[in-house]
Structures are given as C-alpha cells and as structure tokens.
Inverse folding.
C-alpha cells in the first residue's frame, strides 16, 4: 500500500518540486519505505511507498520504455501475473516483477478500459504525455481512496485530502451541506468531502482530464438480478466456497510478512479458515479486546484460533494513562475530515498490534453488506411484508404510528410505512444519530437556514431506486454497497491501517465474489430470521457451531464509559470552552444538555454517546484543519513511533 499525489497544470509553467515534496511528506505514514517524484512543465507526480511486492524494483513513479506513460499507484492488482503473461505474449517487455508495471503496459495495450481486467484494490493516476491526458482510477468497491480538486490552474489529486491541501490553489472552504450530512450519518458521503472544492472519486469510476475538459464516468456496477432459485442452495454453497477460497488465495501474494485480523465473528473466521487451507505456513492472526466484558470478543477469537491452530496475538485496549485522550487528535488528523464511527478506535488498535508482526493483514470486511448481516436487513424484510399485507392502508398505518413513542418496540418501523420504501431504507442509516428532529434542536437558527434544502439521503434513495432487483432486501444490500460500505467501513479500515503503515486486504470484497453474491437469492441470505445464512453454512464446514451461531457483536468500543471517564475533561474543553459556540453552527444550550445528560445519567434515554462522539470528532477536525496553521506547517504524528508503538 502506498500514497500518491500529483498536479496537472493547464498551462506549461512547471510544477514545483517543493510542492510535490510537501504532498508526498503529508502521506509518509502510507508509504514509509521510499519517496519518488516526477515533474515537467505541466505535470508533477509524487509517491510514498510501502514496499510489499518486488521490494527492489517497484519504485514509483513508473513509466513505460520511452517515458511517454507515467504512473503512481496505491494498492494491489492480484491477477497481475496472468495479465503480465498475456502482455508478454503480445510483445510487451518488462523490467520489474511488480504489478505496477503491469498497469502501465495494460494501458498501452487496452487504454482506459484496461481497468476492467484488473482484479484487486487500487487507486492510480496515469499521465499519458503524447495525449496530455490525466487518468485517475478507483477500484470497484472503493477499498482505496482517491481525491481530486478541479481548479482554474488544473487538477490536483491525492490519496488523502491533506496532500491536496498542500497546493495553495486548492480551496479550503468547508461545506455546510457536507457537515449536515456528517451529523446525520457519521461520515461525509461520496462524492462530497467536507471541503466545497475537493471531491472523492467514486468507486468504479475513472476521471479523464484532457484538452481542458474533465469528465468522470463509471466503468463497473454490481447487478442484483433478483431471479435466483433458492432450491439450488447446495449449488450456491459450493460456488461460494470455491470463490472465497480463490479470493483468499489471490490475496496471499506478498514479499513481506502477511497475516489476518481475527475477531471470532463469521466474516473474519471465514477468511482465516480459508487462509489455513491455502497458506504454505502457519497463519498469523491478531485480535484486540477491552477490559469491559460487554465489548470483549477475545474469547471467541481464541476459540477459532485454537480450532484452526494459528499463531494468535492479542492486545487488551486500556484507555487509562491518557491513552485514548492522546489518540483521538491523532485519529482526527489521519481521517482528514469529520468521521464519527467510533469503531475506528479498535480498528486502529488491531492494526497497530498486527503491524508488530506483519506488513499485510487480511480482514473480513464486506460480509455484512453483501450477505445481510445487519439488524436493519431484517427490518427491511418486515417492512416489505407489512406493506404487502396492508396494501393501500400501509401509509395510513404509518401516519397513525407517529403517535407512538419511539421507545415502543416496532414504532419506528411502523412509522416507516408512511414513507416510500427508498426513503425508509435510507433513514435506517441514521438511527440513534442526529436524526431530523435532533438536528433541528441542535442547529443555530442561522445554520439551520443555511442547510434548509440539504438532503443527506439523496444518494441512498438513488441507489435503492436504481437497483435492478425487485426484492427489497436486494435493494437494501445494493444501498449498503454504494454508501455505508464505501464511506464508513472502507474509509475506516484504510485510514486506520495506513496510520500505522499496514496494508489491509479484503477478500470478501473481491468483485468476482460480489458479482456472484448479487445473483444469490435474498432467501438464502436471510432465512428464518437467520442473517448471513449461506455464509454461515459455509463456515459450518470449518468452524465449531458455537461460533457460527453466536449472536452478532459489532466491532465496538465502550465509548459511553470513556466519555464519562478518561475523556470527560477533553469533552468539557472541546464542547464548552466557547470555541465550538463561536462557530455559529450549534445552539450551545443543546450541546450542553446532551453532554450533561450523558455525563450524569446512565438511563438509556440519556445515552448520547454517538451524538457526543460526532461533536467531539467534528471539533477536533475544526481545531486541526481550520483553526490551526497551514497544512504544510502542521506538526504531524511521528509515523515511525506510531508503527512501532
């Protein structure tokens, strides 16, 4: 894994080497093993390398034989050996053993469409000198990030927003609409960023800048067919088994130590079990736990580790001695923009622990989104049944249900019957966060007027309505893939693993596996109330049934207690010292009420941990990226110490 950055100017005035050095330095945590630069009168490319394949020969920027095509690249193309053989047969000559060079020659052979042949996780920038064409590409599931800004001077791009901020022509104004979406969802949804003038390149898209024009278009999509046959269950199971095994085997290619994260849940256990079957040596796994037993999954991980006979490493997260207080500002710096999924904390800790033993770690991310692992998927099925059973009376029942307190079980689902299915699906992603009424109470009158027309759910509804399958569960899964998976899960895993210079690989997100998953009938994903049904059946072939059937436990941290305990002085400072109030965004009385109720009470009605975490991470972002010195002068975390800690 690596970090890439660059600039293409409209006019041939040269690109500053000093600018490229600053952009690369901002990404040094992503690539501590070396830096590379290339610049001429119009383009500059920068690269920070984490050496994983072809340690001696894979340096970037990398070009073809005559230097007419140049590439900077982050990620892995796992089928690069087969592609290389094909290209050699066609006459291409290779100088290295790296997958980077395969991308260069593939572009020479097949042009922009070469990306459709790649199987992996990647983001890259390619400069075609004869055509004066910039091509930016992001992988199908958004595993690897890529950001860009179109300015009067040209295009600036990079793996992380902080590298773009080194270019003085990139605008730094923050977006009220993006902030509103963040408070609704805990993240800023693609293609927005928190900055008005900086954008995320969407997954499965490529950008072409040529002849003064910039265009963005999609090159792949996931097609939920909705026509699967549940009676072919055993056939689907065998195919799933083969694809998971193949996906894991492809991701074992590495010239550095490799292991896996192991939580003891369905997804990570399935990945580790497949690794044991396909690896030449003993598999190395890493797990983290907490002192608070309600959040500690180590016993489940140990059970799987013993059964599979892996080399298991564990760490207990202890928030004392200001550890969590010191960590949060560091995470805010790595995250680049407001991000409030608190599972970023255990993800950081498990990445840090894994980095002590390996440079690459396989994860189980993606199992819930494609195989119906969340509670909202069961709710989606129930709401669809209720709409069908009630017919034209569903909306009336939904309007009546608004008289019920939300504390009544099922009240929210009944209320959803008054909404369109697309809108009801979208709003499930904001449960327990700053929903509409809560944002109304939180915002100052001026800010509320500024975001009056903002719609944080528009992308969710569009995804729901564009899914080809008529099955509501298929549509909900498609929404997850297009939104939450990319903007929350993949963002969290990339940023937290890269914070400690660890490459994370996600075999359950192999696009061939996902294309198969989209053909599996929803009845084999959620069956008799059993989530991830087919994935569980696969795991039963390899893992004790006690693990397969245990209740789902999210990768969570005890943030509620941390806020009342070691983080309380920090929360007081961030939320009540007057700086947050002076921004004019929030009603300070509502902020104080939320904090007071959570701090002084333990009743469920006063559990505001998710909302408070959102406010804390937002204010940390403001202080680091808006209030503080320019990015080039900002003190960065000590990456070497971070990886070794």
């Amino acid at each position: 894994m690596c970090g890439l950055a660059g600039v293409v100017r409209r006019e041939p005035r040269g690109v500053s080497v000093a600018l490229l050095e600053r952009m690369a330095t901002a990404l040094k945590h992503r690539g501590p093993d070396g830096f590379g630069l290339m610049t001429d009168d119009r383009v500059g490319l920068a690269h920070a390398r984490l050496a994983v394949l072809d340690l001696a020969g894979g340096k970037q920027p990398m070009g073809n034989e005559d230097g007419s095509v140049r590439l900077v690249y982050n990620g892995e193309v796992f089928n690069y050996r087969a592609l290389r053989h094909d290209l050699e047969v066609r006459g291409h000559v290779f100088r290295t053993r790296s997958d980077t060079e395969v991308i260069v020659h593939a572009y020479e052979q097949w042009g922009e469409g070469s990306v459709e042949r790649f199987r992996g996780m990647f983001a890259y920038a390619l400069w075609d000198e004869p055509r004066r064409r910039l091509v930016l590409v992001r992988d199908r599931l958004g595993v690897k990030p890529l950001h860009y800004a179109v300015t009067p001077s040209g295009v600036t791009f990079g793996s992380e927003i902080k590298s773009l901020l080194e270019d003085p022509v990139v605008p730094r104004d923050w977006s009220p609409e993006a902030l509103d979406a963040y408070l609704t969802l805990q993240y800023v949804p693609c293609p927005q960023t928190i900055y008005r003038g900086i954008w995320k390149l969407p997954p499965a898209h490529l950008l072409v800048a040529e002849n003064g024009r910039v265009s963005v278009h999609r090159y792949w999509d996931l097609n939920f067919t909705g026509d699967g046959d549940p009676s072919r269950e055993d056939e689907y199971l065998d195919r799933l088994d083969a694809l998971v095994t193949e996906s894991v085997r492809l991701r074992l290619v590495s010239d550095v130590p490799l292991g896996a994260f192991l939580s003891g849940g369905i997804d990570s256990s399935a990945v580790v079990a497949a690794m044991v079957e396909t690896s030449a040596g003993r598999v190395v796994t890493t797990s983290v736990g907490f002192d608070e037993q309600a959040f500690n999954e180590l016993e489940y991980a140990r059970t799987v580790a013993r059964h599979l006979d892996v080399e298991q490493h564990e760490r207990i997260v202890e928030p004392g001695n200001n550890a969590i207080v010191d960590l949060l500002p560091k995470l805010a710096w790595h995250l680049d923009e407001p991000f409030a999924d608190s599972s970023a904390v255990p993800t950081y800790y498990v990445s840090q622990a894994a980095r002590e033993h390996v440079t690459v770690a396989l994860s189980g991310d993606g199992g819930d989104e494609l195989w119906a692992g969340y509670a909202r998927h069961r709710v989606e099925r129930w709401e669809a049944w209720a709409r069908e059973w009630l017919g034209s009376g569903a909306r009336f029942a939904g309007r009546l249900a608004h008289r019920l307190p939300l504390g009544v079980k099922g009240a929210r689902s009944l209320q959803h019957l008054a909404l369109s299915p697309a809108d009801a699906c979208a709003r499930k992603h904001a449960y327990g966060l700053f929903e509409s009424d809560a944002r109304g109470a939180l915002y100052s009158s001026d800010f509320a007027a500024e975001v009056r027309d903002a719609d944080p759910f528009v992308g969710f509804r569009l995804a729901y309505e564009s899914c080809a399958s008529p099955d509501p569960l298929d549509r909900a899964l498609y929404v997850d893939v297009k939104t939450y998976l990319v903007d929350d899960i993949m963002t969290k895993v990339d940023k937290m693993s890269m914070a400690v210079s660890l490459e994370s690989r996600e075999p359950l997100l192999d696009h061939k596996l996902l294309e198969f998953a989209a053909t599996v009938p929803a009845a084999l994903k959620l069956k008799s109330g059993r989530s991830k049904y087919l994935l569980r059946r696969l795991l039963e072939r390899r893992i004790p049934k006690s693990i397969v059937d245990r209740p789902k436990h999210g990768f969570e941290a005890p943030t509620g207690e941390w806020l009342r305990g070691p983080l309380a002085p920090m929360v007081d400072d961030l939320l009540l010292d007057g700086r947050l109030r002076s921004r004019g965004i929030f009603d300070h009385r509502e902020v104080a009420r939320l904090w007071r109720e959570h701090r002084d009470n333990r009743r469920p009605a006063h559990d505001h941990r998710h909302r408070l975490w959102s406010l804390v991470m937002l204010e940390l972002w403001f202080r680091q990226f808006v209030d503080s010195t320019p990015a080039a002068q900002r003190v960065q975390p000590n990456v070497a110490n971070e990886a070794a800690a």
